[in-house]
Amino acid sequence: MSHDIDTKRRNFLKTTALGVAAVPFAGVMLQQQVAKADLPKLSEDDDIAQSLNYVHDAADAADHSAYQDGAHCGNCSLWTGGDAQWGGCQIIPGHHVNRDGWCNAWVPAA
Ligand code: SF4
């Protein structure tokens, strides 16, 4: 009888320990899913885009006083999109920007 209770308790403790151990992994997997999620593309009409003079095509910024030849999101230090055409920007959370785009916060990647 007490052997049965011990076995049940051991099984309960094992199951609980596995469940607790799985929680941090579930959190990491959820973060990865969010990072991979396809965020909406930033519109040039969006308030933050307007405030930064963001354009999808850096060629459209050629006449901007802050524009430097060759500058675009893909070679900006704030770009987080890797090789993607549309990717993240550290100062524009919740949206993707175009790697060929530009804004007046451009900082050359190191
Ligand atoms: Fe593009 Fe850099 Fe401006 Fe972000 S800060 S929108 S990556 S130029």
Describe the 3D structure.
- By secondary structure, the protein is mainly alpha-helical.
- It contains two helices and two strands.
- It has a two-stranded antiparallel sheet with strand order 1-2.
- About 7% of the residues have low confidence.
- Iron/sulfur cluster binds next to loops.
Jot down its keywords.
single chain; 110 residues; mainly alpha; two-stranded antiparallel ribbon; 36% helix; 4% strand; elongated; binds iron/sulfur cluster
Task: Kindly summarize this structure in a few lines.
With 110 residues, the protein is mainly α. It is built from 2 helices and 2 strands.
Mean pLDDT: 83
Name the helicity range: 25-40%
H-E order:
HHEE
Poorly predicted runs are: 27-34
Bound molecules: iron/sulfur cluster
Largest sheet at a glance? Answer: 2 strands, antiparallel
Strand order of the largest sheet: 1-2
Percentage beta strand: under 5%
Overall geometry comes to elongated
* N/C terminus separation: 69 Å
Number of helices: 2
**Radius of gyration, in angstroms, nearest whole number:** 24 Å
Going by helix content, strand content and strand pairing, the class is mainly alpha
The count of β-strands is 2
